[in-house]
Amino acid sequence: MKTEAVTVQSPTVVVKTKTKESVFKRLWKHRTLLLMCMPAIIFFAIFAYLPMPGLYLAFVNYDYSLGIFDSAFVGFDNFKFLVMTGDLWKLTFNTIAYNLAFIVLGNILQIAVAIMLNELTNKWFKKVSQTIMFLPHFISAVLVGLLAYNILSYDYGVLNSFLKMVGLDPVQTYSNPEIWPYIIVITFLWQSTGYGSIVYFAAIMGLDKSILEAAEIDGANAFQRIRYIIIPWLKPTFIILLLFSLGGVLKGNFGLFYNLVGANNTMLYPTTDIIETYVFRTLMTNFNFSLGSAVSLYQSVFGLVIVLTANWIIRKVSPENSLF
Amino acid sequence: MEQTSRRNIDTSTIMVRIIGYGFIGLFALCCLFPFILIVSSSFSSEKAIMESGFALWPKEFSTFAYEIVFKNPRLVIGSYFVTLAITIVGTAVGLFIIAMTGYALQRQDFLYRNKISFYIYFTTLFSGGLVPFYLLMTKYLHLQDNYLAVLLPGLLSPFLIIMMKAFTKSIPHEITESAKMDGAGDFTIFLKIILPMSTPALATIGLFIALGYWNEWYNSMLFLSPNMEYRPLQLFLYNVVTSADFIRNSAAASNVPAQDIPLETMKMATAVVATGPVILFYPFVQKYFISGITIGAVKG
Lengths: 324, 300
Prior knowledge:
Pfam families (chain B): BPD_transp_1
Number of strands of chain A: 2
Helix content of chain B: over 70%
Largest sheet of chain A: 2 strands, antiparallel
Structural class of chain B: mainly alpha
CATH architecture of the largest domain in chain B: Orthogonal Bundle
InterPro entries (chain B): MetI-like, MetI-like_sf
Strand content of chain B: under 5%
Keywords (chain B): Cell membrane, Membrane, Transmembrane, Transmembrane helix, Transport
Domain ABC transmembrane type-1 (chain B): 80-285
CATH class of the largest domain in chain B: Mainly Alpha
Number of strands of chain B: 0
CATH superfamily of the largest domain in chain A: MetI-like
CATH topology of the largest domain in chain B: MetI-like fold
Order of helices and strands of chain A: HHEEHHHHHHHHHHHH
Distance between the termini of chain B: 38 Å
Number of domains of chain B: 2
Subcellular location (chain B): Cell membrane
Number of helices of chain A: 14
Radius of gyration of chain B: 25 Å
Number of domains of chain A: 2
Strand content of chain A: under 5%
Oligomer: heterodimer
């Protein structure tokens, strides 16, 4: 009995000291690689993790002189206010509706461009047109705003010059909220289609050309080859990209909206205000830090739920593409 | 082969090609159109624009706007210098850290690689949002009116670290292994062997960082106050585009009477000056951006 107890006890002691030692030993063993990651770890600690507790702002009535954690606690009052004014619903609707339009129309156009590019035979034309189509992706949001102004300005814009030329009345673009969803979606497509089509174009390049040749020999015409071979081939890429972008459906493109609409164009807010622009205003014009944080917290939590759902679906559809 | 396929072209193929050339040609023209408009307007006289609006070809050719922009080039050159300095320093530092992190995180024998990868990736899933970030930068780090407020947040991004990981994965692990046998440390392996081998990846990622800095205006707008003399280029452009007073002030030293300052054409000329170099440079490096998005999409 005694000997048994000893033999049972001693290994546990050994194991205990071993694990305790080996944590440091392991850290020591990987010290160089750990140190190599240290700048990045510190960077994200400061610029991404440190602001997170600041979301507590959403539950207080923020007083700049008192600081975040000494301001008066108000519970869910900020959220109640956002719900009661209807702001939260409007922002959620606008942000999601715009993103869905971007995702659906964007992908359709990208696929169309990729398929068409693949059919072109003139190398020079292909290269030049591709270069031009990528171009809008590389300019700043500020310039996008100015380019749109060239077209939409009431007095000098090309749109109104054209309307006057064909005998129609000029439109007051910057005070007419109904047309802004179209303007924003078109600008988005203008800026992102060329660059986004690369992924689909690369996918078509990966298609075994002998399949297309075999179909041709079997009498499939060009339309049938696109419809029954190329489009089905692109389907998995499409589904994965779709799910990825659905994960970000609550995140808005601040630069695009802010520069297109302008900083203080209140008339257009009903159809152009998204979460990002609203939070920006609470901070820079209304100085209501708590309200802005409440919207951000809502966006982060709800957004996380959406990403987890999207990832859960990806894991079912194609496990090798799932994020985690 | 070439000959037979050419002979076998049927009507449907011809039709698809016609649609293809038409569609792509038209779309490319739409992409180019606003750029031509802006360049043309910048070379137009203010009077012609007041009378008949922006046009694809200047009704009345004039370089007056450029003359004013360059008559007192201090502000524009100062902006260029600020943006160039931020871009060069930020790209060099950011690229080095991203490469180092990316290499360490794809090493299969690195015990903490999954934990650190998730730690970095999580920041794309959940964030504190704008207000806490703003308070951190201004109230706690005191970076208001400091170029570091533009430089620091742009250094790293989870997306680029993931891209770097995907790139360096293609370097065989045996290279690291054999170097270790010869007694080289991890950092030496990275510096002397991995870095020189990953020049295409470094070019791609470096260009992504540089483009981000060059087009940066958001943090500049948040943290650099309007009374700062030399502001990053895009903020300078933003001020020119949105404020007539700013144009008048910046043109004041040119001795042109305030009412004669061509407000509209100066916006366009400033845009051309701020963007032109990038657009001319970009076709030469386009292939690196393409390889970036392809590997990014493959990896997710």
